[in-house]
Every structure is written in structure tokens, then in C-alpha cells.
Write a structure and sequence with these properties.
By secondary structure, the chain is an alpha/beta fold. The protein has nine helices and eight strands. The strands form two sheets. The chain has a five-stranded parallel sheet, with helices on both faces. It has a three-stranded antiparallel sheet with strand order 6-5-7. The two termini are 22 Å apart. The structure holds adenosine monophosphate.
Length: 222
């Protein structure tokens, strides 16, 4: 079984706040394949205020996962789109063993396979500080941090000049604790699963954004 096209098919995984989203956005620029964030897809649906969106929002705001069948259906439809033909970066999926098995089946049916699953490792105490301090530009989504990544000019986005910022509702201490519990119970079991498949590569996520990006490039050979 060989990959169609030249692009890479990569999963970025790790605990909430490990930097998957940041690294996925940067990697997308370097390898030119779409960044598929199930969290962003769900937040977009929640934002519409639809009946489904409200159900999703209630789960996200408490730090609980949305049901496997819903997320598998959403992701499989997204992967069918033309822009994913030459590769993709998955961020936040798979988050459970049934999702990992469903992804395997989805790709097998299409005759393609993953190139790598990269686990970004960060200790819990660092995760809490990272998540509680993070915020993003309303206009372009550029991420910032109260302590570690401030805009060059106070209150102005470096990337687009936007002046309005937001914090995720689920980025509060109680919800993050629950997200970490769910990570250990439901998502962590996917790590040995991918290791068994020979796909797992681990990276220390505690360095600077640039240093972690460099390690990911090295692991992927790009
Ligand atoms: P993220 O943006 O990846 O931190 O995801 C935010 C929230 O969306 C998670 O805490 C879950 O409630 C939900 N979510 C995102 N991806 C998944 C997934 N693959 N399975 C179930 N729930 C998900």
C-alpha cells in the first residue's frame, strides 16, 4: 500500500495545551497540506448556535469529548475533500481508540496510510500555566500568551493588526483538569496503539515554538 501524491499525512497528538494547534499551523505552512483541527470544526458549529452546536458547546465547555460517531462522521467527510488528496495534518483527532481504529479503516478503504503520529510531550504543571495564560486574535486566530508570547505592540495583533482578542471558555482551571483526566483515560491509550503500528514519534514540547518546530521537521525529514 503506498501513499497517493507527495504530501505527508501526519497526526499531531498530546495533552491539551501541548502545542498541537500552534505546531500544526506552522507545519502547514512548511509542508503545504491542510490543517484539520476537529476542535476548530466543533467550535465553528457551536458558534452557529444550531441545536447541534449548542449540544457540542455544552460538552466542550465542560471539557468532555463529543461522541465518537459524530466526530468520525465529521472527519471522514472532511478527509474526502479535494484539498486533502495530497496529505493533511490532523490536530485533535483521533482522541479515542475507536477514533484511531476508524481512521485506520477510513485510510485503508482509500488505499492510503499515515506517515507519522507525533506525540508532543509536556508535563501537566506546564500545561496548566500555558493554557490559563493563552488567548488569540479575534480576526486571524494568531495565538498569544500573557507571559510567554505577548504581541510586540500592546493590544495589537502582530499578524493582522487586529485589536480584539478572546480566550476559550474551556481554558479555565476546572475544565482543564477535566480535559487532562479525559486525555489520560481516553486519548492516551491511542499512543501505544500507534506505537504498535510503528508510526509513533515523540518530541519534547517544552522548548520554544521554533525549537519544537525544528524537532518535528527533523522527525518528518522535511
Ligand atoms: P481542541 O481544540 O483540540 O482542544 O478541542 C476542544 C474540544 O473539542 C475538546 O475538549 C473536546 O470537547 C472537543 N473535541 C475536539 N476534538 C475531538 C475529538 N476528536 N473527539 C471528541 N471530542 C473532540
Amino acid at each position: 500500500m503506498s501513499n497517493h501524491g507527495s504530501g505527508l499525512r501526519v497526526v499531531l497528538t498530546g495533552a491539551p495545551g501541548c502545542g498541537k494547534g500552534t505546531q500544526a499551523r506552522l507545519l502547514k505552512e512548511r509542508i503545504g497540506v491542510p490543517h484539520l483541527s476537529t476542535g476548530e470544526m466543533l467550535r465553528a458549529e457551536a458558534y452557529t448556535g444550531s441545536e447541534l452546536g449548542l449540544k457540542i458547546k455544552a460538552l466542550i465547555d465542560k471539557g468532555n469529548l463529543v461522541p465518537d460517531d459524530m466526530i468520525i462522521d465529521m472527519l471522514s467527510r472532511r478527509i474526502e475533500e479535494k484539498d486533502c488528496e495530497n496529505g493533511f495534518i490532523l490536530d485533535g483527532f483521533p482522541r479515542t481508540l475507536p477514533q484511531a481504529e476508524a481512521l485506520d479503516k477510513m485510510l485503508k478503504d482509500k488505499g492510503i496510510k499515515l506517515d507519522a503520529v507525533i506525540e508532543i510531550q509536556v508535563p501537566d504543571e506546564i500545561i496548566m500555566e500555558r493554557i490559563l495564560g493563552r488567548y488569540a486574535c479575534m480576526k486571524c486566530g494568531q495565538g498569544y500568551h500573557d507571559k510567554y508570547q505577548k504581541p510586540k505592540v500592546y493590544g495589537v495583533c502582530d499578524n493582522c493588526g487586529g485589536t480584539e482578542f478572546y480566550r476559550r471558555i474551556d481554558d479555565n482551571r476546572t475544565t482543564v483538569q477535566n480535559r487532562l483526566v479525559n486525555y489520560r483515560a481516553l486519548t492516551y491509550p491511542t499512543i501505544p496503539y500507534f506505537e504498535k503500528e510503528g508510526l509513533l514519534k515523540c518530541v519534547d514540547g517544552t522548548g520554544s515554538i521554533e525549537a519544537v518546530a525544528k524537532k518535528i521537521d527533523d522527525l518528518l525529514g522535511v
